[in-house]
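Issue 218. Parser rejects a valid record. Input:
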Amino acid sequence: MSVRKLKPITPAQRFRVVNGFDAVTTQKPEKSLLAPVKSTGGRNNNGKMTVRHRGGGHKRRYRIIDFKRDKFDITSEVLSIEYDPNRSAFIALLQYKDGEKRYIIAQNGLKVGQKVLSGKSASPEIGNALYLSDIPLGTIISCIELVPGKGATIARSAGAFAQLMAREGKYATIKLPSGETRMILVTCLATIGTVSNSDHQLLVSGKAGRSRWLGRRPRTRPVAMNPVDHPMGGGEGRASGGHPRSRNGIPAKGYRTRNKTKASNRYIVERRRK
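Output the parser choked on:
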């Protein structure tokens, strides 16, 4: 895991920090696990723009990731660690004893040739997927299910991890990456270890053009708009815009919008830190 600072041969390269890709072992993906991904440009099925600041960018092909880890008690070997343009984390190509290949989110420290297992018979080692009921307390985990059998939904991005704090009855208490402490059913699967590519947060694009390569279009500051476009727009001269708020007038910076009667409130032990 390393990052490189480039020589300032152009104004854009002066501040650019790029990934060293030390962990990545191959350039070519597994063809059988590729799928097309269409570029929407932020438009819905009627052609109406529903998401702003999206569009353009380099063409991508989706890598089919096994978030369910449902090939239980069958040993697999890590064939390669690969780059995935669809996510910040690296992915690992596994080959099972029966010959099937699958991609999983790579954990930090996962090596080519390593044996990986999921299910009741798995030991709590990096890359193995276990039920929360079988993981030792205090273990660092990632790729956690919220609904049994649905597949991993929590702590999947680069460098993300959660910690198993306690177990009581049919619930385990997990400290999530946001700082929130939450109860999750012990029949949910989780993977041991931290998600790979923790250096992702250190990268610096260096120029606006790189955002365009990633399919991110420019975003106009609300204070530069007119009052018809945004609550923070307008005013004589350079106005501050008043209290920061969204386009719909909802205050930003700590205003609570969560429903007080939401069903999942009973599973949240402690709210996230601000």
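Fixed in the parser; the record now loads. The chain has a mean pLDDT of 95.
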